[in-house]
Amino acid sequence: MYHTSTLQRNNNKKTMGRTSKEIAIAFALNIGAGLATCIGGLVPFSRKLISLAKPSRIGIALALSAGVMIFISLAEIFGKSDEEFQKFFGKNTANICQNLTNSCQDLRFQCANRNVCNEIQTVCQTFTNETSNEFHCDKACRGHSKTLTTVFFLLGAALIFLLDFIVHKISPDHKHDIDIEEINHLNHQSVLVKDHEDGSNSHPNGSLHNTKAHQSLNRTGILTALAIGLHNLPEGIATFLAASINLKTSVPLALGIALHNIPEGIAVATPVYFATQSKWKGLLYTFISALAEPLGGLICFLIISNGLNPFVNGAMFGIVVGMMITISLKELIPTALRFCTSKGKISVSILVGMLIMALSLIIFDYLGME
């Protein structure tokens, strides 16, 4: 007995046969999420922005982002991966119906009562017309689908660990996330600049002292830009791939990624600014690291633009889920806890991020957005 899943051919066509408008929206979301990194790069330009960049606030923003990414990955994208694998392993109803119709036609010539045979033919034809676009997936099909979804989920997680391994090989002592001391020092620098402008004898560069320290900070900024660029690449793929499902999935995911890209921009710009005293150079490095996100989207577009079979679609969705969950659990939440010592606030922020995501999906459904 076959289990009829609600997998439609038109969904597959919609996913892989996108219009120019849908592609443009996907790239716009992709670029927007990436350029959010530059917002963090603008922090040294404004004392007001510096005052907003408190460690606890950054921690809460990272936790919110983690909640959004975890929810959308497990609630939407994981299921999409399983759905694509069911299409791959399932039997197309059109083939089953064709066989049934042929059997009915054979039976018609053997049947003494032509009216009964005509009824059988009508029922068979109706069944064929109504279900020809569906797939049937039995228990073995469902088991295979879940297994492969999990395998590619784990592969996506492994890719993030591999990226970290590469970064640490390039610079064993380097940490790619922002340091609380740099945030505090940025606030201190802002106060010194204000005092200097008010006529104080304090010099805004007073605490950044020798050439060796400047070189070290500049190297830190460059390596941070490289590390964040590597991490933004899979996020760019995820954003574009989510847009191939529907807008209600991709818009909140892009917002979640943008939310944690802002602190990453601070992580790039701050050490470069301290090392060179050039706000523009810090912003430039931030912009370069941000380009990795649309680059990831471009790679994804080149892979799927001509359409892929359900197996490859399912594999890509599974890998994206693994990457997003691992980034959230390995990077965002630990960093959030380091910045905001209140575990309660972090827990609540993660749940609020999930709630925002859930409400967004509900609203999009009521609006009929797909």
Would you mind describing this structure in some detail?
This protein is mainly alpha-helical. The radius of gyration is 27 Å and the shape is elongated. The chain is about 80% helix and about 5% strand. Mean pLDDT is about 75; it is low at about 1-15 and about 190-210. The chain is built from 14 helices and three strands. The two termini are about 30 Å apart. Strands 1-3-2 form a three-stranded antiparallel sheet. It has two domains: about 5-90 and about 140-365, no CATH class; about 90-135. Its main location: membrane.
Q: Pairing-aware structural class of the strands and helices?
A: mainly alpha
Q: What is the succession of H and E elements? A: EHHHHEHHEHHHHHHHH
Largest sheet: 3 strands, antiparallel
Helical amount = over 70%
Computed over alpha carbons, the radius of gyration is 27 Å
The total count of strands amounts to 3
- Characterize the quaternary organization of these chains: single chain
Placed side by side, the strands forming the largest sheet appear as 1-3-2
Give me the number of helical elements.
14
How would the global form be characterised? elongated
Averaged pLDDT: 75
Number of domains: 2
Please give a quick description of this structure:
With 370 residues, the chain is mostly helical.
Structural topology:
Elements lengths: L2 E6 H8 L3 H22 L5 H6 L2 H35 L1 E2 H18 L3 H18 L2 E4 L1 H32 L9 H18 L13 H33 L3 H30 L2 H12 L1 H13 L5 H30 L3 H24 L4
Antiparallel strand pairs: 1-3, 2-3
Helix pairs in contact: 2-9, 2-10, 2-11, 2-12, 4-7, 4-10, 4-13, 4-14, 5-6, 7-9, 7-13, 9-10, 9-11, 9-12, 9-13, 10-11, 10-14
